[in-house]
Amino acid sequence: MHILFLSDNFPPEVNAPASRTFEHAREWAKAGYRVTIITCAPNFPKGQVFAGYRNRLWQSEQMEGIRVIRVWTYITANEGFIRRILDYISFMVSATLAAPFVGKVDVVVGTSPQFFTACAAYLVSRMKRIPFVFELRDMWPESIKAVGAMNDSLAIRMLERIEMFLYRKADVIVSVTHSFKRKLTERGINGEKIHVVTNGVDLSRFTPTLRDESLAGDLGIAGCFVAGYIGTHGMAHGLDTLLDTAEIFQSEGRSNVRFLFLGDGARKADLVRDAQRRKLRNVVFVDSVPKAEVVRYWSLLDVSIIHLRDIDLFSTVIPSKMFESMGMGIPLLHGVPGESAGIVEREGVGIVFPSGNARALHAALASLNTDAPRYNQLRENCLGAAPNYDRRGLAGTMLNIMSAIHARHTGRTLSSPQRPAQ
Length: 422
Hints:
single chain, 422 residues, alpha/beta, Rossmann fold, 8-stranded mixed β-sheet, 6-stranded parallel β-sheet, 15 helices, globular
């Protein structure tokens, strides 16, 4: 089986969609399947093409058994709604035009968050007469309304009609949360074609690691209890709450507790300015680093903070970095209600606090800083739970789903598909 996967994010980019797509595709290639990725020149989140790449009509490379085709797109930073829409549409057009030059494809997958990539996958499926799989990572465009990036309007309603069209036309929908599946069935989509494959962790990379003391010294956090936020600094994440918490610790004179922010995004510059205005000496900002360097920064953390704004929609999401934290044996301070909070509590891997509540975050962080037995138990629980979310097994589950729809499409009897090695 030849899998064609469309994603506008892919390594060397280090965001969640890029990591999930690469780690799944790598396992499918290892299992002996042909995998072709159509993506763009790496540029997320700053809108600057990475060194060694150019924004060209077509460029091809091999990456761990995966054929990667990069096409031209309109490149912009991850900010500004209109410019990002132009970025998404340009990838949709370029990916659709490039796909006919990829021969003998058996199934095409289009991944969100935004659905213009799924639009391209649908068009490709019609051109090649192959099954269309919609990987649903975000309830878009609902999420852009939720963060206030765009109000309800004719444009939003048009996007919502396209969204529902794609859900209906997909042969299979692979949702990253059970909550997304429930929302789709409530909107009339056939639940039998919706499968849940959650996010997970690459346990070959994210494992317990000794703190990089040299790096800690460079960042001025050696000997400190470090609470870290690693990921996109966007409108959805409500990171002002973390600055509020840092301000409480500073006012108490608790200089041994430090906050490390790693990443970029639309709100990054505002957060840096706000920290400077408040004269926060216990906060360190670091720009995004290459994928190979991320684990060094994870090693600096004593606890990982996961946070999203207090919006109903976000109770349906499961942030992928919570699994990376578990793989590293780093307890979580989890400020996201709903399905993901249920995982944290069920697995006993951290403390759940109300989103946007700096006082509650302060109390949870202070308790882990002083209660060593509780901290060590959470750490052990992280390491015990992480294998339940091993990306290799999840990749195998998705592979079985695609193999089944391919078999139905061709009328063949389905034998047991080969799964990536566990």
